[in-house]
Amino acid sequence: MTKPRLYSGMQPSADSLHVGNYIGALLQWRELQDSYEAFFSVVDLHALTQPIEPAALREMTRRTAAQYIAAGIEPSRSTLYVQSHVRAHAELAWVLSTITGFGEANRMTQFKDKSARYGADATNVGLFTYPVLMAADILLYQTDIVPVGDDQKQHVELTRDLAERFNSRYGTAFTVPIPVIQKETARIYDLQNPASKMSKSAESEAGILWMLDDPAVSAKKVMRAVTDNEGSVRYDRETKPGVSNLLTIYSALTGRQVASIEDEYAGRGYGDFKKGLAEVVVSEFAPVRERTLEMLADPAELDRVLASNADRAAEVADATLADVYDKVGLLRRV
Ligand code: TYM
């Protein structure tokens, strides 16, 4: 029996992934790779939409792939590859851009946020068409589900709209995918500023738990996380955003219910709670860090794995692209 398809990806836009990426996406990926035929990409073409040094991009692309593997994505079972290695992505994005409304793209909140942040001079057309490339990623693989954090939901909705539009205009070429968003963990917040999501582009490092942080540094960041004056370990997103975020992280990393963690720390102060969480974080990420660094010590082997996975991906992607080219009326080269 063939398994349903899963697709997801991350941008190689920092030296390390962070705990938001891990909890919001990677944990689901790892779990779902058994029951789905999974494709995981490192979306380097997307990363070009922000200023990035060429040498740094290459390094971050390998690092991101290594972290996927270190976190439990198995390249012999799931297809783990680099987006630019499969040419069909950029080609399908072009075709999809011709059925995307200007106003439709202009409504994407992430584009609005990023273009406001970078300013008019640094905002580029690639940033504007970014969600169309993301739609191409997903649609090339006849994807059934897309597990992401909630900041990507609007992009997956656009992907669905484009798939339906194409299918009804030209005949069915695409599976219409659904986003899969884990409600409790879809948004991990910054440790210093629990009103904002944890993000690679945050102003200060202190609120971001990087997967590749030295364990002592992670522990320190947890110990210094912003809490409140009440002193009780209790989940209440409205009035206790800092503590609630720490509880979410604790729960996601241990698989324990929030209520059981609240019980364990009842009557104890934040110091104890944070110490407990620091231990959880260190024991989760120290081995991931070690495995990642090991793989990065042998980049040639990693590059080989990525190349053979890209071949597997291209087989699926090229078939979809050929069908799309036929359907829109591009003359087939003999
Ligand atoms: P990116 O690289 O920003 O993030 C990768 C994944 O991590 C999730 N995430 C979070 N989840 C919970 N809390 C947070 N603080 C947090 N920060 C990030 C994101 O939701 C995402 O799932 N456009 C995508 C990459 C992409 C893609 C795709 C994803 C390109 N093509 C096709 C899925 C399918 C992005 O920039 O993710």
Describe the structure.
- The radius of gyration is 21 Å and the shape is globular.
- It is mostly helical and 334 residues long.
- The mean pLDDT is 96.
- The protein is built from 13 helices and five strands.
- It binds tryptophanyl-5'AMP.
- Tryptophanyl-5'AMP (TYM) binds at residues 7-11, 20-21, 24-25, 43, 46, 134, 137-138, 146, 148-149, 151-152, 186-188, 197-198.
- The site of tryptophanyl-5'AMP has 24 residues, from strand 1, helix 1 and helix 7.
* Uncertain ranges: none
Biggest sheet strand line-up: 1-2-3
Shape: globular
- Quick check: average pLDDT? 96
Q: What's the total number of strands?
A: 5
Q: Which ligands, by name, code or SMILES, are bound?
A: tryptophanyl-5'AMP
Estimate percent helicity.
Answer: 40-55%
Largest sheet: 3 strands, parallel
Approximate strand percentage: 5-15%
- Judged by helices, strands and strand pairing, the structural class is mainly alpha
Question: Taking Cα atoms only, what radius of gyration do you get, to the nearest Å?
Answer: 21 Å
How far the N terminus sits from the C terminus, by CA atoms, comes to 35 Å
Q: Can you write the helix and strand succession as a string?
A: EHEHHEHHHHEHEHHHHH
Q: What is the tally of helical segments? A: 13
